[in-house]
Design a protein that fits this description.
Length: 102
């Protein structure tokens, strides 16, 4: 995160060589790119958090479908259940992969 902030500050201080390439769309999506990069780096460094996030995402698919909020294919619901079950088995088989709360 510090590296990204440092690179951004360096870019803002240096005079832009290509001002014609400036786009409002680039500015609007910059926060999303930053958020996704931060999320990716955080999950990559903390595997138990990644496993728990995947499991929770898969667990939410069925209630969203049943409530009609987000309709999905029965195959997707089944695949989500399978992935969630495998993630649960991994946390039982490898206790170090269980998300620790303080």
């Amino acid at each position: 995160m510090e590296q990204v902030a440092h690179d951004r500050a360096k870019r803002e201080k240096s005079p832009s060589q290509d001002r014609l390439g400036y786009s409002v769309a680039n500015e609007e999506t910059e926060w999303l790119q930053f958020f996704l990069l931060l999320l990716f780096r955080s999950l990559k460094k903390h595997l138990p958090l990644l496993l728990n996030t995947v499991k929770n995402f898969c667990d939410i698919l069925n209630p969203l479908d049943q409530l009609g909020i987000y309709k999905s294919n029965p195959g997707i619901i089944g695949l989500g259940g399978l992935v969630s079950s495998v993630a649960g088995i991994i946390t039982v088989a490898y206790p170090q992969m269980k998300l620790k709360t303080h």
